[in-house]
Amino acid sequence: MSTETIKAVNEGDILWQPSADMVEGAQITHYIHWLRSEYDKSFDSYSDLHAWSVDKNGEFWDSIWRYFEIISDTPYTAVVQGEISRAAWFEGAKVNYAEHVLRAAKHGGDEPAILGLKEGGDITSMTWFELASNVRKLASSMRSMGIGSGDRVAAYLPNSPEAVIALLATVAIGAIWSSTAPEFGTGAVVDRLAQIAPKLIFVADGYRFNGNQHDRRQAVEEIIKALPSLEQVVLVPQLNLNVGSPNTQGKPSRRTFDELMQGEPVGENEFVFERVPHDHPLWVLYSSGTTGLPKAIMHSHVGMLVSHYVVNNLHLNLSTESRLFFYTTTGWMMFNSVVSALLCGSSIITYDGSPTYPSGAALWRLASETRATVFGASPTYIQVMDQMSVRPKDEFDLSALELILLSGSPAQPEHFAWFHDNVKSDLWVGSSSGGTDICGAIVGALPTLPVRAGRIQCPILGIDVHAFDSENRSVVDEVGELVIASPAPCMPLGFWNDERRDRYVSAYFKDIPGVWRHGDFIQISSDLSSNILGRSDSTLNRHGVRIGTAEIYRCVEKVDGVRDSLVVALERSPGHYTMELFIALMPGWIFDQYLVNAIKAALRSNCSPRHVPDVIHPVQAIPYTLSGKKMEVPVRRILQGEPVSKVASVDAMKDPRAIDEFVKFKV
């Protein structure tokens, strides 16, 4: 980042301290007082509270159930049972996630629940009463179309109020939600959705980005054709393109979103939420597809409920006075996370468009005009702001802003300082890390602790996080493997079509039996603050969105002239990340701009713009292990300056000479 726009700051410097009034008024303080009254528990520090939450996790999660007054048809028989890879939470309970979201309508009434903006348009507002009414109406229409508990409902929609309504309506009737973003190419969408065989899909005719309209009608038709399980298609117009007349007779039948919202309103007393068992899937999210098809990750209603209440209410301090904005797409778990803020009665802000159109300050204008109290983005967004010399505090009224939430990639000290220098001097800048696997945070923010430059404030309550060294010992003030050592309700139910749980156990528990290995490097300090130091596996992080290498390989290696490929993400300088693609050519082919353009075009069309690398290098060969795996992590470590002898075993390689060429590309 430019040193001219920010003051010098060192990692660990205290940049912000909460006021006494903020500490006293924080929702976690209220919870601590409640624990003293209801459980006769007293804690001298957050460290003591967190230790109790993991040492006595059954007692802790029972308190969360009671504190947030979870609605269930039946009482649970036990808080948690089983080993970490098969833990069952609140068995016997029957709950519905959407019911808890919409109970806030009883308190919110005419206050806005969703403020929405589409690039080039005006901000719209939907009250809590309107949201609840829209969800009941759509859910009832879906029921009349034959959609019910356990059916999968997919979406190919931008981040919009309609997408939020569709998610909540799906969940309200016990169906299982799964979404992808319209900038995804057909192959990336089908790779995901075909696994779950959806019965209904919501689709957009296109989306707007950077001043341009992107017509996705052809992609929609290709997706529908590739999903024979579909019985219903619901068009949610975004560009108002001509899509012909709806067809309610053929298979799949086609209707419009507006058609499903017609008719008489469905009263609150007329609608019945489908309360489902503890192990009923809420939604399916997808891993990044590093080693093959993206993994279809299932989370439960009850697990997400208690986990999201903890993160949103106790850690982010969200309330009925909050308005949360996070720049995301529906293809990232942050969309689900934003929707979860509704549980606290908070307003959410949806945005479909470029973060820098019509100017670099586009999102700050949105934050100002919606009176956002929370602004969320990836740290890479701050690099863009700095490069464009955007200084929000000189242009906008951001007096309502209380919290900056950084997530998606490791935040550097300079990222924290940028906000104090360019947005607001007295600002709580929180950073978090978690991911799709748990649809939440492992380490994150807290309103009662100081903010240190470049560090995440604390571990999340109930998450038994550690840094493990090479001997699988928990270490402090040392870099180690991020692990979770005991069960947490945010852990998945498992993967779709993995009844024996072989893939699920292999993904998280194979390397260190009995412990969840998350795939990040972390350093945890004695004060519980932490640093995430990037991936310990080969998953890429592109502008805050994880991308699997396998998706890139499947596309690149179909381009004429490309024999093989390998892609890595590098931090070329502090806070500056690049995605670099290495290709080996077919005999007789020449590496030139025509080939570079062809590769980029293929990735942009078949995957998404985020899959396009920053630079492409030609190499003679791609290094492989004897077991046939591309050596992504060793290559990345070499490019970061480590010697070949330290990161790669000659005896474990098919062709030891293949890796030597990468030394010349090191940072």
From TrEMBL:
Give the InterPro entries listed for this entry: Acac_CoA_synth, ACAS_N, AMP-bd_C_sf, AMP-binding_CS, AMP-dep_synth/lig_dom, ANL_N_sf
EC no. given is 6.2.1.1
Q: Which UniProt keywords apply?
A: ATP-binding, Ligase, Nucleotide-binding
Domain (Acetyl-coenzyme A synthetase N-terminal): residue spans on this chain: 46-100
Enzyme type, top EC level: ligase
Q: Which residues form the AMP-dependent synthetase/ligase domain?
A: 104-488
One GO MF annotation is: acetate-CoA ligase activity
Which protein family is named in the record? Belongs to the ATP-dependent AMP-binding enzyme family.
> What name has this protein been given in UniProt?
Acetyl-coenzyme A synthetase
The organism is Cupriavidus numazuensis
Identify the gene encoding this protein: acsA_3
